[in-house]
Specification:
By secondary structure, the chain is of the alpha+beta class. The chain has helices at 36-51, 56-59, 85-90, 128-143, 147-155, 157-173, 232-240, 296-300, 326-329, 334-342, 347-365, 397-402; strands at residues 74-80, 83-84, 101-106, 115-124, 184-185, 187-193, 196-202, 206-214, 217-222, 243-248, 272-279, 285-287, 293-294, 308-313, 318-324, 370-371, 374-380, 408-410. Helices cover 29% and strands 24% of the residues. It starts with 35 loop residues before the first helix and ends in a 9-residue tail after the last strand. Residues 1-21, 29-33, 87-96, 386-397 and 400-419 have low confidence and may be disordered.
């Protein structure tokens, strides 16, 4: 796993304007506003809830063996905890930055001998780290909870994933003692069954596929698009539920606030930073995405846990898939990420290289108070059944890429749908 050295200092500057890159207007991680006792209690609540439910690892012993060659996917996984420049400036070594990202890589034997599951989850808000951890355990577990669930996943993966997202969100919002009013998580979940990838997601984490379109030329194909509140369909849903989509003011008012009144000049279309979701007459919750799990206040005003779902049939020239949180995508485009991965010889090397590239770009920007958590999975699509029944090729994506590939790219729209 790539980790920055202990003495590495992020070369970023403090800004007056808070939470520029934060998903929520509430600070994340183990909030200093909460007592240690409260934080410990919430940790124990999550542990007890997970302990009393069957875990994914146990459920995977009940794989349905279809007598077919097993799915063979190699996965590289890297996660890097973010940096708080505010904490570093104060020299407070006792205030570590909590990594709110989580991931799940079950590339073989998920629900069936030909099944796999990949997921990343980017928490936000005071208990976002607990929410992402809970979702990474419960989402795949719900998909394979029993024989009926496994059958539904293989026969109708769209229906199974929709039900799993809804079910986990209900669990989060009904858990006694865990406050998710201002905390939640993104989620990108890929179910791979033979040659079919079904991708379900909420929020702004992404999945991107690398396809060799000509020898030595790799195309980036987006399996997801970011759920942003300013998108027309998302905005209509939010406003229909008495929510409001607006940016913060570009400069503070006389009281030093970046919010001002609801109709203050400079707020909304003409403000700065990301568009956020607010209650109609209040400056809460300030979520910068239009779909998420948890976030009970935002869900009252149009933010939804309903995932968007796309399917993709793997073809012979599909080489790898990247699944990553926003720590990658803030400063690295889909095409740039595919180029980095294509230049590597293994999924592990690729995940490390991409995480390191994103980390260095966060440092180089030098314009904000945080470096975000970074989590990336890179899966080589090996031993996937060929589209042609006669070719029968079982090839290593990275072996094929290393044979004369220079990792060059075709320019492709990041939000283009899979053909």
């Amino acid at each position: 796993m790539f980790c920055p050295t202990a003495d590495a200092e992020p070369s970023v500057l403090l800004k007056k304007r808070p939470f520029e890159h934060s998903r929520s207007s509430m600070p994340g991680g183990a909030s200093p506003l909460k007592t240690a006792t409260r934080r410990d209690m919430e940790e124990r609540i999550i542990e007890m809830e997970l302990a009393r439910k069957p875990g994914t690892e146990k459920l995977m012993w009940e794989v349905d063996n279809e007598g077919m060659p097993p799915l063979d996917i190699a996965v590289g996984c890297v996660t890097i905890s973010g940096r708080s420049v505010i904490g570093a400036a104060k020299g407070d070594a006792n205030e570590p930055c909590v990594n709110q990202d989580a991931y799940c890589a079950l590339p073989n034997g998920f629900a069936s001998s030909r099944g796999g599951f990949l997921g990343v989850f980017d928490g936000h808000g005071p208990v976002g780290h607990l929410v992402s951890r809970y979702v990474k355990e419960r989402l795949p577990a719900r998909l394979i909870a029993d024989k009926h669930s496994r059958a539904t996943l293989m026969e109708n993966p769209r229906r199974a994933l929709e039900a799993a997202f809804r079910g986990v969100d209900v669990e989060l919002n009904s858990m006694d003692g865990l406050d998710v009013e201002y905390s939640g998580t993104t989620a990108v979940a890929l179910h791979i069954y033979g040659r079919l990838i079904t991708c379900a997601w909420v929020g702004d984490s992404r999945a991107v596929l690398g396809r060799e379109v000509q020898k030595g030329r790799i195309e980036a194909l987006a399996l997801t698009c970011d759920h942003k509140p300013e998108l027309p369909a998302e905005r209509r849903r939010i406003e229909a539920m008495d929510g409001r989509v607006a940016r913060l003011m570009a400069t503070p008012n006389a009281e030093g606030s970046f919010r001002g009144g609801v109709n203050s000049a400079g707020v909304g279309e003409f403000g700065e930073g990301p568009f956020r979701v607010w209650m109609k007459n209040l400056w809460v919750p300030g979520l910068s995405m239009s779909r998420s799990l948890g976030d009970s206040i935002a869900h009252r005003v149009g933010v939804t846990p309903e995932p968007e779902i796309r399917t993709h049939e793997i073809v012979e020239h599909d080489r790898f898939v990247i699944v990553a949180t926003d720590g990658i995508w803030e400063f690295v485009s889909n095409e740039e990420a595919v180029a980095v991965v294509a230049a590597c010889d293994s999924p592990e090397e690729a995940a490390t290289a991409l995480a390191k590239e994103a980390f260095e770009r966060w440092k180089a920007m030098g314009s904000d108070e945080v470096i975000d958590d970074i989590t990336v999975l890179v899966a080589a699509l090996t031993n996937i059944e060929s589209r042609s029944a006669t070719s029968g090729s079982q090839r290593s994506s990275f072996e094929r890429l290393s044979q004369g590939s220079n990792g060059s790219l075709e320019s492709v729209d990041e939000n283009r749908e899979i053909p």
